[in-house]
Specification:
Number of helices: 2
Protein name: VOC family protein
Pfam families: Glyoxalase
Oligomer: single chain
InterPro entries: Anthracycline_SecMetBiosynth, Glyas_Bleomycin-R_OHBP_Dase, Glyas_Fos-R_dOase_dom, VOC_core
Distance between the termini: 30 Å
Organism: Rubritalea tangerina
Structural class: alpha/beta
Radius of gyration: 15 Å
Order of helices and strands: EHEEEEHEEE
Length: 123
């Protein structure tokens, strides 16, 4: 077996409309696929060469302790300011490291999402 890429990352959500408001309204993502399921719902957002999905389905349970995705932003401080103004809960940071700026926020279900900006020498 040879793994060639990560096909997608997914966050389980409990309320698809509330999640859409967060991911599309606040984060500004545009759906590239919206698929109602017999017992749930699946939405994908193309971000560069990657895909972030949100879904409601049996066995999918949101958790702040699960894996997290970090989203690269063009203007870190502006993103942080927008998130604070929107009342988004911050789980960690913002902090600066030798290679980046980052913070972790929570979506409406408590899932952890990284907000990230590489420093120019590390792009």
């Amino acid at each position: 077996m040879k793994i060639t890429e990560i096909a997608f990352s997914c966050y389980p959500v409990t309320d698809i409309e509330k999640a859409r408001s967060f991911y599309e309204g606040l984060l500004g993502l545009t759906p590239t696929m919206d698929h109602p399921l017999e017992d749930g719902h699946w939405i994908e957002y193309g971000i560069g060469p990657s895909t972030l999905a949100i879904g409601v389905a049996p066995g999918m349970t949101p958790s702040p302790d699960g894996c997290s995705v970090s989203l690269e932003v063009d203007d870190f401080q502006n993103a942080i300011n927008e998130l604070h103004q929107a009342g988004v809960e911050f789980a960690y940071g913002p902090i600066e490291t030798s290679v980046c700026h980052m913070a972790f926020i929570k979506d409406p279900d408590g899932n952890s999402i990284g907000i990230h900006k590489r420093k120019p020498a590390h792009s």
